[in-house]
Amino acid sequence: xxxxxxxxxxxxxxxxxxxxxxxxxxxxxxxxxxxxxxxxxxxxxxxxxxxxxxxxxxxxxxxxxxxxxxxxxxxxxxxxxxxxxxxxxxxxxxxxxxxxxxxxxxxxxxxxxxxxxxxxxxxxxxxxxxxxxxxxxxxxxxxxxxxxxxxxxxxxxxxxxxxxxxxxxxxxxxxxxxxxxxxxxxxxxxxxxxxxxxxxxxxxxxxxxxxxxxxxxxxxxxxxxxxxxxxxxxxxxxx
Length: 239
Description:
It is a single chain. By secondary structure, this protein is α/β, with parallel strands linked by helices. Helices cover 33% and strands 12% of the residues. It is built from ten helices and six strands; from the N terminus they run H-H-E-H-E-H-E-H-H-E-H-H-H-E-H-E. The chain is globular.
């Protein structure tokens, strides 16, 4: 407990931009920590473990260290089928907290949740990158990118701030499957949008655009020990 007080969990404020930690914290408040959370693999997975206030055991459904990108949506639909409130089964809110890279691995399961009318909510943390790999590139490889940017090469959204440059268009993708969807860009939109997602019957996708410079902390470098733990910094700095 002394170490928790010495090194409290915290995240940066970035003006009107939405940091992932904040979005997940608000989801926790709006669900009172009672939701079943599934995740893909990457930064969003770590943030979901850190910042969602779990109140019940066995409600964080993740592939752990296996690195199974795309795990989140199919895992969530399984949970939604098991906790659908029908035929004597209990009803639970199920949320797939996913990243844009992981979500693309199994996005076709949007068809399953739409056709089967499964009550799966998707909180899509979109930084337009393979975030976990990008973080290591920032920290240990002087920010040299090895195909970790997932958008159009000629126009990067985080440089242009033009929503037309966000790629792919996940809300349109979801709507083409018959799943209601919404995109938010500003911190002031978060709570209302999450409430709308939770209150909408059936499946729903909420895309949250986040800054790609955000890093998951604390972290220990590969081959390091606790004495090498990193507790500060982000992608705006040079290492």
